[in-house]
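Note to self: keep these together.
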Amino acid sequence: MRILARLKSLVTDPPPEYAFEVSAAGIAWARRGDGGPQWAPLPAGTLEVSPLGDNVKEARSYQAAVHAIAPAASGGKRRRAALILPDFSARVAVLAFDTFPSDHDEQVQLARFRVKRAVPFDIDSAIVSCHAQPRQDGSKKIDVVVAVVNLEVASHLEAPFRAAGFQCGFVTISALAALALPASGEPRDASPSIVAKLSGNVLALSLLEAGHLRMYRCVELQGDSVEEATDVLATTCAYAEDELGRPPQALRLCGAGSTGEELKRRWSEELGIPATGVASKYGTPGAFNAGLAGYLESLEAS
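Structure:
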């Protein structure tokens, strides 16, 4: 996936010793050389995921869980780690630019200005990251993926890892990391395609064209979540046909658990899109470890 090229380039060789994916349900984690993702549940109410304010409601429980996974190293030695944040804790947008500067600081400044009115928090106290992608249709326009996280959200979610002696030099969002996961069935390389990732009642949709991210939506589902998710997916399909000139050719569903087969059948019939799941060498990715599984897959593919 081209969208993951920047992710891979930001991880030096060797990669971080640890990688963690945080969610309200728990912490998925892996240590290099110790196999695939492992799981540490969090007591209910420890975290409440939101793009606003402090997500950590029970700091002691959260810190205790991190310490149980990886006790602080002796001698104050700092260990490198990757940290994967919940989808709903951040805002991600794909913005079109006629031109985009090559200087990193200028890129961030311009992206910060463009998303200022679209985020529900103070953009001046936010972490902004951006990644430019060329258009696939020959247009001179440039699509830029912009990820924005409230500084308070990021710092509090990262705090117990810093206290345990970790340096989280690479931070990303679960749904973006999960884009590295291949389809579990056919078609595998269809374009355009949609990756639908469910994490509890949060749905993240990524519209991909030739490996580039063309649109991203993340919604907190209410009421009959299946009906609402179907409506959100239908509007994404309509956007693809309007903007890309053809409807999505495939759908990858991730994190639906026991309802996954029924959802794939329903969405395939109603929307006319072949639907499949996602695969990983570490087993079937779930609602709260798909980002970690995708991150690990991307490291092996680099």
